[in-house]
Amino acid sequence: MESQSQLQVLFSRAQIAERVAALGSAISLDFAGQHVILIGVLKGAAIFMSDLARALTIDASFDFVGAASYGKGSKSSGEVRLTKDLDRSVSGENVILVEDILDTGLTLSFLQRMLLLHEPKALRVATLLDKPSRRVEPFTADYVGFTIDDRFVVGYGLDHNEQYRNLPDMCILDPLPK
Ligand code: IMP
User: Fold this and answer.
1) Is there a catalytic annotation at residue 103?
2) Which of 30, 85, 87, 103 is catalytic?
3) Strand 170-173's sheet: what is its strand order?
4) Mean pLDDT of the region 27-45
5) How much is the pLDDT for 71?
6) pLDDT exceeding 90 applies to what percent of the chain?
7) Residue ranges with strand state E in the chain
């Protein structure tokens, strides 16, 4: 068991709630009177998506995709593969792809290309965190909760080796356990 003393709150649950409410308002305004499909990227986006969905004042349905990068441990080869596909096509739909964190940009670029093959009516990307300094593939999200420096963050869905996802606050894990 890793020590809790390595965790330092970066964004409290109150700060997160405030940003998620603002993102929900922006999406509701942009898609006023329309239906959207929220597509969450498993597993990290599950908590963000459940709060974002309830911050919307428009009709929304849900789907989930899974993606993993080839490579060992934290070293990624840069190739992404789909581990869970959509349950149904999003052809002609307003799609909001919901991710926990935009880091190198490889995962979202891959998923964006995959979703565009369905020819949705609109495709937007919402990410709670954005680490622009880490980008390998250029990518800009449409809705961003917080832009942060290159720190490893856990909590509110984000994990380290599957731990910490259920923390209500987002915390910096430092130093990173081996
Ligand atoms: P990208 O393809 O590098 O943009 O990868 C995004 C994925 O990397 C996220 O969905 C997370 O699973 C993981 N990731 C990147 N940075 C962090 C972090 O600070 N904490 C936890 N997971 C992270």
Assistant:
1) yes
2) 103
3) 7-11, 170-173, 153-154
4) 98
5) 65
6) 89
7) 7-11, 35-42, 59-69, 80-84, 94-102, 122-130, 143-147, 153-154, 170-173
